[in-house]
Amino acid sequence: MKKIIDAFDYAGDICKAMKKGILLTTKADGKVNTMTIGWGTMGIEWGRPIFVAYVRGSRHTHEMIEKSGEFTVNTPFGELDSKILGFCGTKSGRDTDKIQELGLTLVEPLNCGVPGIMELPLTLECKVLYRMEQTLDTIPQDILDRYYPSGDFHYAYYAEIVGAYIAE
Ligand SMILES: Cc1cc2nc3c(=O)[nH]c(=O)nc-3n(C[C@H](O)[C@H](O)[C@H](O)COP(=O)(O)O)c2cc1C
Question: CA-to-CA distance for 121 and 119, rounded, in angstroms?
Answer without folding.
Answer: 6
